[in-house]
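Re-run with default settings, no changes from the original entry. Doing this only to confirm the output is reproducible before filing.
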Amino acid sequence: MLRHALEAQGHSVLEARDQAEAERCLRTERPALVLSDLKLPVGDGFGVLRAAKDADPDLPVIVMTAYGSIQDAVAAMKEGALDFLAKPVDPDHLRLLVERALAQRRVMMEYALLKDELARKRGAPRIIGNAPALTQVSSALQRAAATDTTVLLEGESGTGKELFARALHALSARAPGPFVPINCAAIPESLLEAEDRSFERLGGTTTIRPDVRVVAATNRVLRRAVASRQFRDDLYFRLSVFPIVIPPLRERRDDVPLLARHFIERACLEIGRRPLALSADAVEALVDYPWPGNVRELQNCLERAVILADGDRIHARTLHLAAPVQVVAHADPWQSVDLSGTLGEATERTRIEAERRKIQQALQQTGGDVGRAADLLEVGYRALLGKIREYGI
């Protein structure tokens, strides 16, 4: 009866028989409003209310209760319910409450989007997600913001390193000052200074010490780059005073639906389209996809889907996600290493094999030039020649 009354007013209605089914709907759909009886065959309306608020703290919830249990409705409102209906339900009263709740919801959504846009213009971006890995990053970011120390942000491409850098700036005492992003790869090496925090202008003779706070970001694992001599160790230790690793999206899959809905709302607002919902198969496809391009790839995917979507819902077929690449598990290289005998014997065999392979690699890189290979390996020419003879290379 309630569904027919609401559909007659042009609303789309999803039905759930009990608390468990309602929770499944809340995980897979994006309702604009929740209407729940406090008495259910399995579970209760309080459980539905809590699940709704967990899914979206701003989601309006209207509860229904028998006339003699008004105290239960009051308790529900204390837990966050927007309003209540006493049974038997008056359809006109129901429609009035629903229209008022939806109008309030629209105002709140517009306010949140405008607030988000203003925050972005001021350089204080909104970080979305509840995954434990992201919570740890946010906590570390707040601790670092309270100091003036150098911060190193490491993470794969598309994880939002500049977003986190801007958030760090906005949380710090330097927020009133400018945030200046610099792409070091675009600057000739000759123009980069060897020391942080001081420089001389081209043609100048005076050393200038600017009042700056350095926040570095990279998509490489610098510790490995230092070990392979591809990155200066002294520069690494200067930058890595307070390192923060941004987790890839595949390690925070629970955040994918939240991020997806945020990008959908923003894309709809930008092109002037009514907000779209995600179908259950679309949510499943988004969560299952590995997202090699991380949050940037997810944003691009949803913006494209908003443009292509027909009707009021985005389906899995609209996402055009490629089939997940099957990752072939490689055998553990240590399985082929002979570790028999004593610790000293096993260590010596491993050392000899590592030396032999490293020397072979150096000779290949230098075209067989022993002198250049010795320089590359930072060993003496005679010592290297002896090793080559010893190992029969």
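The chain has a mean pLDDT of 84. The chain has four domains: 2-107, 132-246, 250-319, 340-390.
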